[in-house]
Design brief:
The complex is a heterodimer of chains A (224) and B (876). Chain A has 224 residues and is α/β, with parallel strands linked by helices. Chain A has helices at residues 46-53, 76-86, 102-112, 119-129, 144-156, 174-190, 202-205, and strands at 2-15, 18-31, 35-39, 61-66, 69-70, 87-91, 162-166, 194-199, 210-215, 218-219. The longest helix of chain B has 44 residues, at 730-773. The chains are: A alpha/beta (224), B alpha+beta (876).
Chain lengths: 224, 876
């Protein structure tokens, strides 16, 4: 069953006098419950694709359905709620709020909905991601790998439809990168979620159930 | 608010100390600006009110008079009256020397409202106890002490009383002419005969009830008081009615609203709000830009726009809670310190001016409200920016130039100056705000400087006084009193003592008619037409009011509202002056016979009279409405209703404050002849016409080296020999003009400095932000060979460009405003003569350049001192 469907998706940016075609008539589907890797060179449109799927920006043209919901029709406020409840983001760089503890960082999306965490699920995440004992630590007290694990925990906490990881291992060394990628894959399996992972790293892509290769804002048919 | 948001708001607030310090400082500065100006304004108004109230003798909202006991008791029960005092007039004391003492029965409310509460001792309890002013006690031959024994003498209902009394308390008074001695209701109970109510039959005041009142709300007070007077069975309108019960609003406490003052207040409030806006907007805009990535992150992980808005509003609230009280406190202290300097300019117009400002909640509430409003307006746009920026835009935000640049070749390569220049346009709006606030500082200072320099000391002094000194009775320098009675005349011995002093030259005594001289009246074509209008058998016409009160005259008015005080035969008594030739020589003769000597001789021969026409101080031309006679027109002089002289108008003179009474005040003429005519006669002719001619002023010049001695001598003489006199000197008139100049410089300077401070704070904030946000860029430049010294130089150059831009803008603006707005303002004020200067603006330039040099050097030392690697790491 498809969780993401894109039809003739276009996203153009204007940079000065030039128009950058980040996504240029892209068609794709992503299957629910699978780990799908998005690969491609710099500027191929990987990050933009994740941003469009995550509702961070609207496409210039075309249709994007996530969990059956047409994002183009949503207002800014509806997109915020959509992101909060149905999407989990993991970014390359340190994306934790430095003034909040690890636990508080993880609970932000729930807090914005005035929702209480599922304590068992929360415990399970902490245990699974090896963050036990770090609940009250501040981000600057964590290593790079621990920070990314905390970011993964934050992405998982709302039990979203899909987790979007944009170069989530890009700032880590080879071994740590592999560990985090493995962890993400196992999380998806363990918590029955869908993962869309944008990466340059072919080794990480090999862990995926499916691979989408992008070039100049379009899917390369020969690889996918 | 969501608990998580609170936590986040609190911790991120605590983490950004420098940013918060600058933001709180910006808010505090705005609050300081509002609080200081509000304190000065409210303080000036309070001081003027208090002075006027003290001169009037009451701080109540209004008063009711001539009531009987029943009416007074009903008045006390009225629900919209908050406080009603009791005053039962007895009489003026007959045995007080050189001081008028009014003896009344008062209660404490009335004593409090009429400034009669004892400063020493206690209120009177027994029937033989009194509270009086120190001067009243002295006038009765005792020293002001608690327990002092005095005797009071008065006549009521035709019976003379002489009663021994004991002083239970006393207060100090600044009025040397009149004060109140009072006793409590025990006295009324002990002497019921004194308080028999016979006013409706014989006009005897003893036995009547007066009451000064304080009301819950002053809205529609006049109408409500008049209605109450009618409800009590009185008549508030008809002075001749037996049940006349005046209900008078105290205009000193409740002045009528002045549209001009309201417009100026609104304009100044808008100017200060703009200053605050420039400051706070920039600070918050920079703060939001610094944190924009963070807001992007918040939005990405599920925070809505309203969450971000709440978060920012919460921080704005905390910063306001920190900055506003500090600003209000310092603003109050600043305003309070400045107030006496501002009040100096009124000191000559309002004699015995009292400077008073209390930390009224009104000051703080008004200033806080304006600050909150400014903060709210200023932060809307930055908050909106943070809320509305698309999350992905915010997340990858890097500050870029807001303008367009075209590619071009540079002949000079990447010089530091060029690098610094190109950095200026990164945020044009922010750069513009810094330039505007710095330039406004220069422009405002220069405007204030021009206005201050334009204060024409000689013009102002010459309006107030035509000689080196003028000595008058104290009443003449009191704008609530004025010279109006013969008993207020200058003593001949005093004049002789002054004239005998070494160095006195051209001394001239000036005679003036009074309200006691109603037997001598004048007629001329303008009033003949008015008097020809219908009138009743007693001679009262529709354009005439006859007053039964002893303290005012019947009046007649024309279609322009020009009022004439009337004598016994219902003709104007005019303001008539008798003078020697030396005094006439000093007058501003404009029409007819303009040779003073010839004119004086002709007048001495009875050939005519000199008519004075009040001048418009702005352009020094006649006020048309007061110019009531033509040269050659005959003015008829009547005495006891009989024509005694016919005096053609030989000449007309433009008259100033000195020609009317003294300095700025003309309260006396306004009570005697009212608006006219002003007639000037030789002393001999004047003495022929009036039975009991009195001198109101002695004017004289002094040899230059003796002027200071005369000031000292007069001060001593007033204190020890003749306490009833006061004087004005040309020097003190000049001093008042200088005081005005100082005040304009001070207030203009204060506002200019606050704008300057806002500009400098913006500059500091901009430089610090630049360092923090461009840390990576700086480190990169250093990594490719730029030295720390070159980096500092580049930042200093950027900062100096701002200063140079502000100077160019400021100087240009100062010149343009000087010849437009400022010249326009100057031309509307009679005491100003436009004088252009650029010195104040020029004086600011070095300060700006030095500041622009110091700020980046200090900021770099503070915020950018780690190694290049460390900077790259922090920035990354």
């Amino acid at each position: 069953m498809d969780i993401v469907t894109a039809r003739q998706l276009k996203k153009y940016y204007r940079e000065g006098k030039h128009v950058v075609k980040a996504l240029d008539g892209l068609d794709l589907t992503v299957q629910r419950g699978k780990f799908t890797a998005v690969i491609g060179n710099s500027g191929s449109g990987k990050t933009t694709l994740l941003h469009v799927i995550g509702g961070l920006c609207k496409p210039t043209e075309g249709e994007i359905l996530v969990g059956g919901m047409a994002l183009s029709a949503l207002t800014e406020e509806e997109l915020t709620v959509f992101r909060r409840r149905r999407i989990g983001f993991v970014f390359q760089e340190d994306s934790l709020v430095p003034e909040l503890t690890v636990l508080e960082n993880i609970l932000i999306p729930l807090a914005m909905d005035d929702a209480r965490p599922d304590e068992r699920f929360l415990k399970g995440i902490f245990s699974f991601l090896g963050l036990e004992g770090k609940e009250n630590a501040f981000p600057d007290m964590l290593s790079g790998g621990q920070k990314q694990r905390a970011a993964i925990a934050r992405a998982l906490i709302t039990k979203p439809d899909i987790i979007l990881a944009d170069e989530a291992t890009g700032s880590l060394d080879g071994k740590n990168a592999q560990n985090v990628a493995q962890l993400l894959k196992r999380s998806v399996d363990c918590f029955h979620q869908t993962l869309l992972f944008a990466t340059h790293n072919r080794e990480i892509a090999q862990l995926a159930d499916a691979v989408i290769c992008l070039r100049d804002g379009q899917v390369c048919p020969e690889i996918s | 608010m969501n608990k998580m948001l609170k936590t986040l708001a609190g911790r991120s607030f605590a983490a950004s100390r420098m940013r918060n310090l600058i933001a709180a400082l910006a808010i505090a500065l705005t609050a300081l600006l509002f609080a200081s100006v509000t304190t000065m304004t409210v303080g000036a108004m309070q001081s003027m009110n208090l002075t006027m109230q003290m001169q009037k003798g009451s701080r109540s909202d209004g008063d009711f008079r001539n009531m009987n006991r029943e009416q007074f008791e009903q008045l006390q029960a009225v629900d919209w009256i908050r406080e009603a005092g009791l005053r039962m007039p007895v009489s003026f004391l007959e045995n007080a020397k050189r001081h008028n003492v009014e003896f009344d029965v008062l209660d404490e409310v009335q004593a409090e409202l009429t400034f009669c509460m004892p400063q020493y001792g206690s209120v009177p309890e027994a029937a033989d106890e009194v509270v009086a002013s120190d001067q009243a006690i002295r006038a009765l031959g005792a020293e002001p002490e608690i327990g002092a024994q005095i005797v009071i003498a008065f006549t009521v209902h035709g019976k003379a009383y002489e009663l021994p009394m004991k002083v239970s308390g006393y207060y100090e008074t600044s009025n040397s002419q009149l004060s109140v001695m009072w006793t409590g209701t025990a006295f009324r109970d002990a002497y019921p005969d004194i308080f028999r109510y016979t006013y409706d039959r014989d006009g005897e005041m003893a036995g009547t009830y007066y009451s000064d009142i304080m009301v819950k709300s002053a809205d529609g007070l006049k109408e409500r008081m008049e209605e109450l007077s009618r409800t009590l069975g009185g008549n508030p309108d008809d002075m001749k009615a037996a049940n006349y019960l005046p209900a008078v609003v105290n205009r000193m406490t409740n002045p009528a609203p002045d549209a001009g003052v309201i417009v100026i207040t609104v304009l100044f409030a808008a100017l200060f709000m703009f200053c605050g806006y420039l400051l706070i907007y920039n600070v918050f805009d920079i703060a939001v830009m610094q944190e924009i990535r963070r807001y992007g992150l918040y939005r990405t992980i599920g925070m809505g726009g309203r969450h971000v808005r709440k978060l920012l509003n919460c921080q704005v609230l905390w910063l306001s809670a920190l900055g506003i009280p500090i600003g209000l406190l310092f603003g109050y202290v600043t305003g309070r310190t400045a107030l006496p300097y501002i009040m100096e300019i009124f000191a000559d117009e309002y004699h015995t001016l009292l400077v008073s400002v209390t930390p009224s909640p009104l000051i703080f509430a008004a200033a806080a409200l304006l600050t909150v409003l400014t903060v709210w307006v200023s932060t809307r746009k930055p908050v909106k920016k943070a809320v509305e920026i698309p999350p992905i835009e915010a997340f990858r935000y890097v500050e870029k130039s807001t303008g367009r640049r075209s590619a071009r070749k540079s002949a000079f390569g990447a010089s530091l100056a060029r690098l610094a220049w190109s950095n200026l346009g990164r945020n044009k709006r922010r750069s513009a705000f810094i330039l505007i606030s710095l330039a406004l500082c220069m422009i405002l200072l220069n405007c204030a400087g021009i206005i201050a320099d334009s204060v024409d000391v000689e013009k102002q002094a010459s309006w107030m006084i035509r000689t080196d000194f003028a000595v008058v009775n104290l009443v003449s320098t009191n704008n609530m009193e004025g010279f109006k009675r013969r008993e207020e005349a200058l003593k001949k011995e005093t004049i002789a003592d002054i004239a005998a002093q070494p160095g006195v030259r051209e001394g001239t005594a000036i005679y003036k008619n009074t309200m006691d001289d109603t037997d001598v009246t004048y007629s001329f074509s303008h009033v003949e037409a008015l008097l020809a209008e219908p009138h009743d058998e007693s001679g009262i016409g529709s354009n005439m009011i006859e007053t039964p009160e002893a303290d005012s005259l019947s009046i007649l008015w024309d279609e322009n509202g020009i009022v004439f005080g009337l004598g016994e035969d219902k003709r104007p008594i005019c303001n008539v002056y008798g003078m020697e030739e030396a005094a006439l020589t000093r007058m501003d003769l404009r029409e007819g016979e303009c040779d003073a000597h010839t004119l004086y001789q002709k007048m001495e021969n009875g050939e005519g009279v000199l008519v004075g026409v009040p001048l418009n101080r702005n352009d020094m031309t006649y006020y048309e409405v007061f110019d009531l006679t033509e040269i050659g027109e005959t003015i008829s002089v009547y005495k006891d209703g009989q024509l005694i002289k016919e005096l053609p108008v030989l000449a007309k003179a433009g008259i100033n404050g000195d020609d009317e009474e003294i300095g700025f005040t003309c309260a006396g003429p306004l009570r005697v002849g009212h608006d006219g005519l002003f007639l000037y006669l030789p002393a001999g002719v004047y003495q022929e016409i009036y039975d009991d001619p009195v001198i109101y002023k002695y004017s004289f010049n002094m040899e230059e080296d003796k002027r200071a001695d005369m000031e000292t001598w007069l001060a001593d003489y007033m204190e020890n020999v003749d306490v009833s006199i006061d004087y004005l000197s040309a020097q003190s008139a000049r001093e008042s003009a200088f005081a005005m100049r100082r005040m304009i410089r001070f207030v203009g300077g204060l506002i200019g400095v606050i704008f300057g401070f806002a500009g400098v704070l913006n500059l500091v904030n901009m430089v610090i932000t630049t360092i923090l946000t461009r840390r990576h860029e700086f480190a990169t430049m250093q990594s490719i060979g730029m030295t720390q010294r070159q980096l500092t130089k580049m930042m200093v150059l950027e900062s100096l460009y701002y200063a140079a831009g502000a100077c160019i803008l400021g100087m240009t603006g100062a010149v343009i405003l000087a010849f437009t707005l400022v010249r326009g303002i100057v031309q509307t004020q009679w005491f100003l003569s436009f004088r252009f200067t650029l010195l104040p603006a020029a004086a600011v330039m070095p300060v700006l350049f030095v500041t622009a040099f110091i700020v980046p050097v200090a900021a770099l030392r503070t915020f950018y001192h780690d190694s290049i690697v460390e900077q790259l790491r922090i920035a990354g």
